[in-house]
Amino acid sequence: MAPSENLHPSTQALHADDFLNLVADVAPPIHLSTTFRFPKEPENLIPSEDPVDDFDGTNYVYSREFAPNATRFEAVLSSLLKGYAVSYSTGLAALHAALVLLNPKRVSVGEGYHGSHEVIAVVSRLSGLEKLPLDCPDDSLGEGDVIILETPVNPLGTAFSIKAYAEKAHARGAFLIVDSTFAPPSLQDPFLWGADFVMHSGSKYFGGHSDLLCGVLVTKRKDWQKKLFEDRLALGNVMGNMESWLGLRSLRTLDIRVQRASESSGKLVAWLHKAQTAPSPEANSEEQLVQMVLKHIHHASLQNEPWLREQMPNGFGPVFSIVLQSEDFARVLPSKLGLFQHATSLGGAESLIEWRALSDSRVDRKLLRLSVGLENWEDLKNDLMRGFKSLVEGR
User: Fold this and answer.
1) What is the pLDDT of residues 90-142, one digit of tens each?
2) pLDDT per residue over 345-369, tens digit each?
3) What's the predicted TM-score (pTM) here?
4) Is 69 in contact with 245 (CB distance < 8 Å)?
5) Is residue 370 helix, strand or coil?
6) Residues paired with residue 35 on neighbouring β-strands, in sequence order
7) Which residue, 11, 225, 292, 372, has most beta carbons within 10 Å?
8) What is the distance between the alpha carbons of residues 21 and 68, in angstroms, rounded to a whole number?
């Protein structure tokens, strides 16, 4: 029996690829082959004029075209993201694919992830693509141009209105690409608010275990998906077989991982915010200690815009940033923690903290980015308190 399209995302993640079951294994097998045998019967050897159109989910030829693990991965993603999903070797390869497909003259983009700006720089070198700020005047954009909206944004974890930027783009005949890496299903559905493409660095929450690289691009248009497959075949930005299998494994638990991490993040942010804004804290109190170390917190949950709870009804994401009172505090704090691991990236089962200046020179050197994992949130709170206390005592 085919799964219903009305199933909850946690159920879709487990059953959206049931139609691709070819063996009795409950856990899908790992297919490592890059090449596949042609039919034995000569009458079935029919040259293909269009490998993308002729692919039926089973007639594999070569993994640069299609492969079993990636096909299943994309089937589940298409169900969860409510569009036609195409997977890539990295998130930046997904962004490159979108820019190759649309070939805009101008792209409007915010500060956000530094890697996106590196991709734009390469495309600009080849095509003369002009980069505009995210808040550029509406009439700076024209037919076929692109707005890239990262929301929530890296590294802050604060959010922008997708609907507002969709309206800005579409009024000028431009397209909106939403990088929703920090808000995977079921936290946010950018298509609901007008996005033309949704992009994810699947290395983060889709992978979920800090052990694979991948990117995902999703569109509502079947003809665009076909062209993306054709371009991917030509440029070769495919996921590896093992990475595709790991991605599929991880999607099975995406919903519960994201919900748990987002809830814990919200509790940590609320606790820090309450302590940081407490008036006249008592000497040696928890509030005083937080205020001696912490200067500012960035997270979507602290925004008051009326559109935000509609755009993110189920939580505000597991990533937030804190700005400390000094650069030295920011450099030292990660070494004082036991549960938060000092590393870049995010979205894994373990909580990470990063002195972001190590990865992005544009960022305030007093800023730390926190990616909340699956540990108990009170244990994470206590870990931060021990770290804060160590900073104050070591001054």
Assistant:
1) 999 999 999 999 999 999 999 999 999 999 999 999 999 999 999 999 999 99
2) 999 999 999 999 999 999 999 999 9
3) 0.95
4) yes
5) strand
6) 62
7) 372
8) 10
